[in-house]
Design a protein that fits this description.
By secondary structure, this protein is of the alpha/beta class. The chain contains 9 helices and 13 strands. The strands form 2 sheets. Strands 1, 2, 3, 4, 5, 6, 7, 8, 9, 10 and 11 form an 11-stranded mixed β-sheet that branches. Strands 12-13 form a two-stranded parallel ribbon. A hairpin with a 7-residue loop joins strand 9 and strand 10.
């Protein structure tokens, strides 16, 4: 006689379900541990100080965009005179970068150690943008202005905790960081004495992610400062108080068209009533040549444009081993700081 199994179909299903549940739990725990390890390693990499002497001080700023990490570079062996305060350079990284990446690529810290100034590196949150881009283009949704306010909150925190000089603050950025730097300066012109835009887009050129690509290709002139408005302002001799602007851009940039350099220079020159001078060529050793044009008003340089032959979508003169960095270009780091120093001096004469 054939013996029947006493195991019911329901119990077989229950046992199979339990086995699968245990397997899924083990896989989830293993994956969770692996993900946690990846997060810990990423955090350790971000917080690891860049090469060179000095302090790499972590912080968190709270603003309308939420919390944003930042690092402040402080030169080594600082001995300040009573009441002495140091200039502050704010550096906004590009897409696919962290603040640490930007510090290593530009070597701004090395210059800061020599020239005695502080450097602030705000950090975009990957939850806010999966590629690590500052959302300079999200003006319709309000994200752009929220991030502007949060970056300014980081500056305020540094001012509160460290000996930074409110009258000597400059902001610079690359790519999305450049576009955000320009937007920050237009929203808070009295807070910054100089702004440098490397391979960026003029503020107002895009209102959303869908229009950002066209703006990057140079298709949109910003509607904020039109030519008609500029002429009217010129007739009334009432110009905006935008800080002086340095524009750097490579003519081989395939990500952000070099037309954007002319666009943002035109916007700034119109708004400040500045007029272009004669272009001159800069050539140092075997580095790429560059064409420089200054726009001046009442003896003060309000816009300086540097168009670099052969440079792609990279920081000019940066560390060659890093992405988005080309050592064959003119030293943008030195140019940015020299421009800021001149703006600091000229601002005291106003």
């Amino acid at each position: 006689m054939v013996r029947r199994s006493s195991t019911s179909p329901a119990s077989v299903f229950a046992k199979a379900y339990q086995r699968n549940l245990k397997a899924m739990t083990r896989a989830t725990l293993t994956g969770g541990k692996r993900l946690a390890g990846q997060v810990q390693r990423a955090a350790a990499q971000i917080n690891r100080p860049p090469p060179g002497p000095g302090d790499w001080l972590p912080g968190v700023a709270l603003g309308p965009a939420g919390a944003r990490r930042f690092h402040l570079y402080r030169p080594p062996d600082l001995v300040l005179a009573p009441g002495e305060k140091l200039p502050l350079m704010v550096m906004l990284h590009g897409c696919g970068q962290t603040g640490r990446d930007f510090a290593v690529s530009t070597r701004m810290n090395r210059l800061a150690a020599r020239e005695r100034f502080l450097v602030l590196y705000p950090e975009q949150d990957r939850m806010a943008n999966a590629h690590g881009c500052w959302n300079w283009f999200e003006r319709r949704s309000g994200k752009a202005d929220a991030e502007v306010a949060t970056i300014v909150a980081a500056v305020d925190q540094v001012m509160l905790l460290y000996p930074a000089d409110r009258d000597r603050v400059a902001i610079a950025g690359l790519s999305a960081g450049a576009s955000m730097a320009a937007l920050v300066a237009t929203r808070h012109p009295a807070r910054f004495q100089a702004v440098a835009v490397h391979s960026g887009v003029a503020p107002g050129a895009a209102k959303s992610a869908s229009t950002a690509l066209g703006a990057m290709r140079g298709r949109h002139m910003p509607p904020v400062f039109t030519t008609a408005v500029g002429k009217a302002m010129g007739a009334a001799a009432q110009f905006t108080t935008l800080p002086p602007l340095l524009v750097l851009h490579g003519d081989a940039d395939e990500v952000v068209a070099i037309d954007n350099a002319d666009n943002i220079a035109s916007v700034w020159a119109t708004a400040t009533g500045a007029r272009p001078g004669t272009a001159r060529v800069l050539q140092r050793g075997q580095r790429y040549p560059a064409r420089l044009t200054d726009f001046r008003r009442l003896g003060r340089t309000m816009v300086s444009v540097c168009e670099i032959d052969g440079l792609g979508h990279t920081w000019s003169g940066g560390l060659g081993s890093q992405p988005f960095s080309d050592p064959r270009g003119p030293d943008a780091t030195r140019m940015v700081w020299a421009f800021a120093q001149r703006a600091f001096r000229e601002s005291t004469k106003k």
